[in-house]
Specification:
63 residues, 3-stranded antiparallel beta sheet, 25% strand
Length: 63
């Protein structure tokens, strides 16, 4: 059984070795999202939580 990280979503910007950026949506609170994303990307990549709130409609879509 997986661990629960809450029912919120956090937008995270990920930057790879080639300086290409991606935007990820983490199913976790902002305090946990960065750790989860960094654990999923290759070593040397960086991640930053973006201060973007999802609308209620977007939140329901991703649930």
């Amino acid at each position: 059984m997986g661990e629960s990280f809450g029912n919120s979503f956090t937008v995270v910007q990920v930057t790879g070795d080639s300086a290409e950026t991606q935007v990820w949506l983490a199913a976790a609170k902002p305090t946990q999202a960065l750790t989860l994303v960094l654990a999923a990307v290759p070593e040397g990549w960086t991640a930053e939580v973006l201060n973007i709130a999802l609308t209620h409609k977007q939140q329901r879509l991703f649930e």
